[in-house]
Every structure is written in C-alpha cells, then in structure tokens.
UniProtKB/TrEMBL annotation:
SUPFAM superfamilies: S-adenosyl-L-methionine-dependent methyltransferases. One of its GO terms (cellular component) is tRNA (m1A) methyltransferase complex. The keyword Thylakoid does not apply. PANTHER family: TRNA (ADENINE(58)-N(1))-METHYLTRANSFERASE (PTHR12133), TRNA (ADENINE(58)-N(1))-METHYLTRANSFERASE, MITOCHONDRIAL (PTHR12133:SF1). It comes from marine sediment metagenome. GO terms for molecular function: tRNA (adenine(58)-N1)-methyltransferase activity. Residues 79-241 form the tRNA (adenine(58)-N(1))-methyltransferase catalytic subunit TRM61 C-terminal domain. One of its GO terms (biological process) is tRNA methylation. Pfam families: GCD14, TrmI-like_N. Keywords: Methyltransferase, S-adenosyl-L-methionine, Transferase, tRNA processing. PROSITE patterns: SAM_TRM61 (PS51620). The keyword Methyltransferase applies. This is tRNA (adenine(58)-N(1))-methyltransferase catalytic subunit TRM61 C-terminal domain-containing protein.
Amino acid sequence: MLLLGNMMNVIGEGDDVLLYLDGRRTYMVRVEAGKQFHTHRGYVELGELIGRPYGSTIMSSLNISFHALKPLIRDRVLKTDRRTQVLYPKDIGFILLHVGVGAGSRVVEAGTGSGALTMALAEVVKPDGMIYSYDINPKFQGVAAGNIERAGLMEYVELKEGDITVGIDEADVDAVILDLATPWLVVRHAYEALAGSGVFVSFSPTIEQVMKTVYALKDHPFIEVETIELLLRNYTVAQNRTRPRTQMLGHSGYITTARKVIGEGNP
C-alpha cells in the first residue's frame, strides 16, 4: 500500500503539474519529455520532472525556483479553458458541502459551461457515481469535455446537449444543480427528478432570478428554502502589520437551496 501511494505521488509523462512561482503566478502544464515551458523567469525543462515526486523544486534556465505541485480541483477550476464565466471555488465548496453528495451519488447539473462545477462534482461522486450535465450550447460542451478529460474524470460524466427547461431524463437523483438564466422554469422538472430528501441548488447572478426561483420552489413540496451570498476576503499576515487585503472577492452570485419532501412543503 505504501509503495502504491508513493507511485501515485510521482510525476509521470503526460501528467499535469501546477508550476508554482509565487502566490500570484502559477502555471498548469503537461509534462512531456523534451518539452520546455517558457516564462519571463526563464524556461523549465519539463522532462526533468519525470520520475520526481510532486512537491519537487526545479530550476529555470535563469536559476529561478519553481515548485511542481499536484493540481487540486481548485487549481483545475481556476486554470480551466473558459468560454463562459465559471463558478468560483468559494461557491463550489459551499455547494458541494450543502448537497451532501459522495461516492455513488447521481447528480443532474444544468449549464455545463466550461465544466468547472462538473469536475468538482465528478471528483466527489467517483468511482461509482455519475454527473448528468445538460447544456443547450454544443460549443460549450466541447470545451467542457476537453477540461474534464484532462482532469481524468470523463468516465463519471455524461454530457447531454439539450434544454433542461423542457424536462429531465433522469429519476431518483440525489441533487439537481442549476447555473442557467431561468432556473425557475426547471423547478417542476427538478422535483420530479429528485429522490425524496434530494437537494435543489440554483446559482444566479441577479436577485430578480432568485425571487422567481424561490416563488417557484414554494409552489412545490420543497422545504428549507434558503438563499445565501458568499464574500471572500484574504488577509496579509506579517509581524505587527496583519491586515485585510484591499481587494476582496465580493459578489459572484446568489445560491438558492431547497430539499424535496413527499407531500406538502413548508418554508
């Protein structure tokens, strides 16, 4: 078991690596023999990373240190090839914890976009679960497929080109998660697709969308209907001058959640 763990922590050809220069500059690269990665701080011979453990330090041609880290899902979300606005890790983290899905869970998602949330969900439900991700735009799903495949998670995802406001094919799913312009049009379909006690989640940038969605939820047997907004502030920590940073990650959207019950719902 120890040997297997060690092998999994060794960089191989074709693996993704997050090259860390400093807190503001990181680069997602794919390791290949004979390939160079060029930066303003010199180039890095990526082939030299093969066989070395993640976390190793490699020097650039200008003798600058880079650290070769194993990419987290957070890193893949932030470095993903984007054609649409992606959810931030602060919002994705809340959604993952709130829906309570895990290995073996089945989740319907709508608004695949670039696949950021899709990847995070797939990482959580593997190896026995499945994400059914709907989007009406085939170009977006093509981008998402590339991102998901690069993360090695495609076997846990079924990409579905279609309009989820018309209906949901799946039944008895554990969660329905929406990131689209008209989530209130999906509430009835979500109720029908969810298993009892299943979780509904909607991410919306405007309060008008939230209001319409909440009104629709209250017309169906859902309980614990709540809407939250997450604000993230980083701090600079130093001797005698610890302070909040002047810039913070403020409004990105509102997250509305609810749970399905069998029978009459209550607020």
